[in-house]
């Protein structure tokens, strides 16, 4: 299947997930993340979940990061430049949903991409080669290309890996890991 077909397939699979399954699976994903050796970094980029899209609930991961005293960086979508602007999450950070219902910081302390050590990457699907399919706008590929070369990229998925994608592009940046409720994939 190509990316368009896979986007449609995985959006439909997500629609069928109950809130209980989302919560249980998100907790299992967070617990599986603890098995990774990725906790020595200083700055961790974490997307805030779009509840309407039935994304992995990243609140459990946020609690882990805060418990480990890490700097949590959250993105705001820069629609004009097709990019993400990253802000340090603090006690005073104001969060507002954008036109796609993405919870985002209104403003704050901007953190350059080059300072980020680990990125938790949203996705719809991934394959056994570490390629991911997002919503198709290219925000994360552009953002990841601006990060330092050794940044750790971790996908989060309710579903297991596809064998391989038909239409992988040179601009697609593969993951280092993808974590599901059942297992951790290393690429």
Automatic annotation (TrEMBL):
- Which cofactors, if any, are listed as required? Mg(2+)
Task: Give the UniProt keywords, A-Z.
Answer: ATP-binding, Ligase, Magnesium, Metal-binding, Nucleotide-binding
Task: Report a single Gene Ontology molecular function.
Answer: ATP binding
Listed under catalytic activity are:
(6S)-5-formyl-5,6,7,8-tetrahydrofolate + ATP = (6R)-5,10-methenyltetrahydrofolate + ADP + phosphate
Q: Which domain of life is it from?
A: Bacteria
Per UniProt, where does substrate bind? 50, 55
| Residues reported in the UniProt entry to bind ATP | 3-7, 132-140
Q: Which InterPro entries match?
A: FTHF_cligase (IPR002698), FTHF_cligase-like_sf (IPR024185), NagB/RpiA_transferase-like (IPR037171)
Q: What is its EC number?
A: 6.3.3.2
The keyword Ligase is assigned to this record? yes
One GO BP: folic acid-containing compound biosynthetic process
State the family it belongs to: Belongs to the 5-formyltetrahydrofolate cyclo-ligase family.
Question: What PANTHER family does UniProt report for this protein, alphabetically?
Answer: 5-FORMYLTETRAHYDROFOLATE CYCLO-LIGASE (PTHR23407:SF1), ATPASE INHIBITOR/5-FORMYLTETRAHYDROFOLATE CYCLO-LIGASE (PTHR23407)
Name of protein: 5-formyltetrahydrofolate cyclo-ligase
């Amino acid at each position: 299947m190509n990316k368009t077909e896979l986007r449609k397939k995985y959006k439909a699979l997500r629609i069928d997930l109950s809130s209980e399954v989302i919560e249980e699976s998100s907790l299992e994903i967070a617990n599986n993340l603890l098995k990774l050796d990725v906790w020595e970094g200083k700055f961790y980029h974490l997307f805030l979940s779009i509840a309407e899209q039935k994304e992995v609930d990243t609140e459990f991961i946020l609690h882990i990061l805060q418990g480990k005293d890490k700097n949590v960086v959250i993105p705001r979508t820069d629609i004009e430049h097709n990019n993400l602007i990253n802000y340090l999450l603090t006690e005073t950070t104001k969060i507002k949903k954008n036109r796609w219902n993405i919870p985002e910081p209104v403003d704050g302390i901007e953190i350059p991409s080059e300072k980020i050590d680990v990125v938790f990457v949203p996705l719809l699907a991934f394959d056994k080669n570490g390629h991911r399919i997002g919503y198709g706008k290219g925000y994360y590929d552009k953002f990841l290309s601006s990060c330092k070369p050794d940044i750790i990229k971790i996908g989060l998925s309710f579903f297991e890996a596809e064998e391989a994608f038909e239409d992988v592009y040179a601009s697609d940046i593969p993951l280092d890991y993808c974590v599901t409720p059942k297992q951790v994939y290393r690429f």
